[in-house]
Queue: 2 jobs
Job 1
Amino acid sequence: MSQLHVTTKINGDETEFLCEAEDTLLDVLRDRLGLTGTKEGCGTGDCGACSVAVDGRLVCSCLMLGAEAEGRDIATIEGMATGDQLHPLQQKFIEMAALQCGICTPGILVAAQSLLERNPDPSEEEVRYWLAGNLCRCTGYDKIIRAVMETAADMRRAS
Amino acid sequence: MALDDTKKTREFKVVGTRPDRPDGIDKVTGRARFGADMVAPGMLTGRILRSPHAHARIVRIDASKAKALSGVKAVVTRADFGEVPEDVADVLDNCMAGDKVLYDGHAVAAVAASSPAVARKALKLIEVEYEVLPHVTDVDEAIKPDAPVLHEGRQQETVPEGMSQNVIARSEFGHGDIEAGLKQADRVVERTYRTAATHQGYIEPHACLATMGSDGRADLWVCTQGHYMVRNTCAAILGMEQGQLRVTASEIGGGFGGKTVVFLEPVALMLAKKAGRPVKMVMSRSEVLRATGPTSSTSIDVKIGMTKDGKITAGFAELRYQGGAYPGSPVDMGAMSGFAPYDLENVKTLGWDVVTNRPKAAAYRAPGAPMAAFAIESAIDEAAKGFGLDPLEVRLMNGADEGTKASYGPTYPAIGLKATLEAAKLHPHWSAPLGENQGRGVACGFWFNFGGDTCVSLNITPDGTVTVSEGNPDIGGSRASMTMMAAEELGIPYDQVRTIIADTGSLGQNEVTDGSRVTFAVGLATIKAAEAAKKEMCRRAALVWGIDEEAVEWEDGAARPAGPNAGKFPPMTLKEIAAIASNTGGPIAGHHEVNAEGAGVSFATHMVDVELDRDTGSTKILRYTVFQDAGKAVHPSYVEGQFQGGAVQGIGWALNEEYIYGDDGILQNAGFLDYRIPVASDLPMIDTVILEIPNPGHPYGVRGVGETSIVPPLAAIANAVSEAAGVRMTQLPMSPPRVLAALQAKAES
Amino acid sequence: MVEVLLWGSLADQAEGARKVEVEAATLRELLDGLGEKFPGLRPELERGVSVSIDGRVYNDSWFQPIAPDSEVVLLKRLKGG
């Protein structure tokens, strides 16, 4: 049983880890690096709770192998705030009660951030389709959609 | 204990506002620790081997090869558990099968190993010899006299002789004379309705981390709706004393009733005991769907008699609910709640509890009520529309009010049903025009709501901030509402209070977070604990001032002399009293322990517009409005959230979600791809209207809100789809193939 | 005497009576009295019931007072999610 040595960048930090060939990126983040903010809801890419950005692209970390992180730049929920300064999306989710239990929240925030990086002025329909891969069972999505759209409006005004 | 607080008309300062939730930052930064997020030194991975058969006798289990595998530290089967008390016997059998496996996914053995990979390999090395038995998964099949029988000798005395042993219990409710009522009717609608089993669909799979020492003391970290229930159940199953098992609740990633029972926890403790090391167990999504606690599938006959003016002359329903492999489907709750929104002279419901080869049903948000409401509200709608009557007016005409004798027996105190119907009638949604292929539906719903055992401890720190300890996992913002009620009662700002969820070693018994009880019961105990602390602070101020403690009152966060005779002293604030607590007798705290009975019932009316695609049979939800009585909305954003979440779970139940079993009794869609819950792009915004008809049993008038919101949507959507399709839909889910078939059948007829 | 309304299938176990009378001033006396007077009710009482007293539901509170003119309805034990 020989483990693979991987060098990658996570939330801006150079990171090295050893993993089994079969370990997913999600396994590595949670079980080897202690980054448990990324959640496992299904392990089959259906729920989006494990969403991370890899080289700026939104992926389900349960569908990518840890070994594939070699040389990549990975962004997880733990890197979303800057020090004690929350990202506007994080702040708005709290203000607008866009979470109930909070298990889907990290994945939804990572996905929403990825949307706003591409499209600073999304329509409601665009937000709904972008987040269609992120399941939330508590909120009925209403407050989540509103929070994303309001954040987008705030960020447009601020820029 | 009776809760006869006279409702004061009061101006609220904190209650009714929308502050940021105290656990918000943890939950948006990934810091919040859920069930699977905990680790312990030397921790092992626990995994469960599950039955590939729907019904089989276990002839032999040989785990010798697994035990011999390097890295395997323990193997557990039913043989490791001793005799257990009768009230947890089914729970244990569900966690680890005895002589028989009763459903696809039933646990038969478990391992603890040094890594997930070793654990997986070990499971494959466990040899189980089965004698496969005939099985039954459909409720109507299971009640047939020649159906395969799951259990002998479990039938209750309420069931007439000659019925299948799978029929466990009968319950009957109502009053009046159905036959006489039907004779007065101008039209009788009589139909059979069916609903598929659905799952709560919480996004966080079950997870726990168990440790147990050789001295018998154990700790458990677990994602649950009730860690006190976990403690009591596990202690009974493992033959431990409750005080020796400390359970800490993790943050919980959804439950909706599905985390009110144990599945992994006794097994994790047994593995930890045998291995002498901490054991972490986390379910996969397919395990969650195959082997936790979905709701019943049902088959319901309804007969409604109505006069041409819309008066319901008789209402009858016979409900058959399969509750999976063990007795205890929520059919009695369905039978009691289905006609509860109406004031009926003649009403009767008959419920049959049936076992089948499926996982044991757990509670799911107002357990049993949505299916009964689907059937009954559909029939009422059909009867009303048959006379060309307005379905809202018909519901108002027959609606229950204060003084109505409920279909399940009691006479209602002040209730909010008609307020929700009136609000619905006046809402612009009701008069908005509809286009082609569109339909609008309405339906009402009812839920009982509970209280139960509750403890709250409120402590004043030396600097005059306040900590509240409560024993109910925060599943949707309840820390915020407790903090708000404590701040309200003490007259201090919201940010001066911090609420935590205490472990089982820190408080007395607490009922599970269920029955929409937390804001009501824990809120009540929080208010009472704050009152106790206020009384003590008034006493301290009286000591300092040298006056009678009766001459001191609490107002706006400070003790004040009451009345002109008490003397002229400037108010002493909470912070000032806290600072001298050591000098005036010691630390100051308030606590309250109560079995909070007397919860107020709650009603809702839902309104929905749908559009059908006649080529595919798919249904689009265009517009949705919830009208519900909250008693008093403590944090309106989270009340709206409960309304919206319940409505959308109902949308899933109505349109997509279903457990699909093959002829082999194996679940065919054990994943989120094929068990499809609503996603953001399926939905419109969910509008909400909060009505506030105070509950006299709570100092602030609070009623539970969590469960009622899932009761009306199934029927409201069915009524809307039926209108759009021109065909009465009687079976859920109304999936595209089913709607298409109904449209084609209509076109051919 | 307190008049207690029984649900249908329970009435069958109480010699068919939908309404029965027992001497009781508290919830505990009521439940004990029912079991004594109608042994057929005992299995259901042992499985657990809820009791509505004047429109409020009680599960366990033995010493909840019951007035002679109270409306008392025996219910199936309520469950929630």
Note: The first helix of chain C runs from residue 8 to 13.
Job 2
Amino acid sequence: MKKIPKEISDQVKELKRKTQEQRQQIRRISELVKKEIEREPGIWEYDFDELEQEIWNKHSRIQDKIKDLSEQISECSGKSPRDIYRFYKQLRGNFIRQNVINQEIISFYLAVILTLQKIKDRLNSLEFRVDQINREKEELMIEIQELKLQLMKQEKEQ
Amino acid sequence: MNDFKNIWNLINSDHPEQSLNQISSHLEKITKNKGVQHSYNILLKLEVVLGLRKPRVALYDNALHFIGGAQKYGCTIANALKDVCDVTLISHRKISLEQLKDWYGMDLSPCQIKVIEIPFFEERTERTDTFDAGEADLKGENPFHAVSKESGEHDIFINNCMLEMVYPLSNVSEFVCHFPERERSRFFHVDQYTHIICNSQYTGEWIKRKWDLEPDEVFYPPVEMMPSTDEVNKEKMVLSVSRFELSGKKQQLEMVRIFEKMLKKYPQQTKGWHLVIAGGSVDDNPYLERVRMASKALPAKKIELKVNLSLEEIKELYQRARIFWHLAGLEQIDPERAEHFGMTTVEAMQNKCVPVVYRGGGQKEIIKDQKSGLFFDTKEELMDRTHELMGSPSRLETLAQTAFEESKSYTKQHFQHKVTTHFDQILKEYGSV
């Protein structure tokens, strides 16, 4: 490498200073690199906690049912042991039946959620790959364009 | 690279003075098409190639203000680079070089320190000294762009806190990964880094499985627990050293229960043996309280809990212990709960303390079963293996010696050599055309 004159080094420094100033004025990363580095938020940002919240909101009547039940239990305290026994037996039967149904429903929804999660991850990774390929494609296109220009320039010079 | 070469050819021409206008217009064109960062990176490289300054390195660790293995790992990298590069350590909170010297025994005085606060986490009602990147709002704007922008001011950017949301803008970028914690999200940028460095083959395997990316280098963490003296005063002690995590990940509670069972099952062989569980803990740790309660079921001489000991006290325990237990990963499904490497296992080996550890995670890379330690898959196996060792002093001796020899591959010198070789190659390529 031959020695570069000091004036040139100074010019390089000056160019860098100017570019740095220009760079500092830009806030967005995508603007700094002239490409979108992050996609817009979409279905993949779906929050499962929100889904749960949504389900509870839809079934807010459950709270009223719980209140009714608690009142019925309170009423039992003034009744005979036989009535109380009957009430609890009935309640227990209902709970057992409900429990069986709940377990089936829970398993079903769990399977659905897990499947959705897997699909989400898979699609997410596919989307990234597509994105990567597109980026590479764009870079290649730019390079081809530059090479074409260089070639044209060379042809003209010749 | 082609852009750089074109500019370089103009500078390296017979009349570089005449080329200056051309360089300027060339850069303008690049800025227009590829962004100002691209032009800036060309000029940064040009300065280094022309020998106008040393390469500038930024090492980002948002938890640098806390003492920890990952932070020591990063500081050792900085230490290896400080003489040949201008190194800036970037953290989330203020930290002094003196403090880092106290913690890790490294003089990083030529390095600079810069604090970058992340507005998203600062604006929360509860302002904490650290943050969980997983809490970032994936629907909003990437909160780590402030760090990304800073990365573009340097020639080399090292992301030491596996924060996959930081988009690297520097010419060369290194992503240090201690375990891929999160899934790919819209803020995932690890695939933009020049190299991915991980701390074990196990972590590397999970980087492939979770992120579909190939790690470039494995740098095992530096472990420095070699005894200062050859004098060995070994006792019939089973030792465990690991943090009392709130989640109980290190399974100290299980250790107490297993040891209790062993005392009942093998009263003769366990005679004279005792269990010491040492580790750091935060204040008011409910998990530690559970371990404490469980240990009360054992005779006082048989078990000791040692919390938040100094380095010297830990060293002394390693020197006295004959057997080392590590249970992280046992009966767990989540790969994150296994030991990603196993620094304390190596520390034990350096002190001729035979490791009996769960066959999982990074431990499989450190230990050769039946040669430098013993593996177990179940609690019963742990009891059997330990019992075998307790009854065979000569076997303990042989295993301890091999463990000691093999532990030499994980010293600081070894780590620094790997780091230096890796970065020498990068700097060589970066400083030339």
Note: Chain B touches chain A through 45 residues (CB under 8 Å).
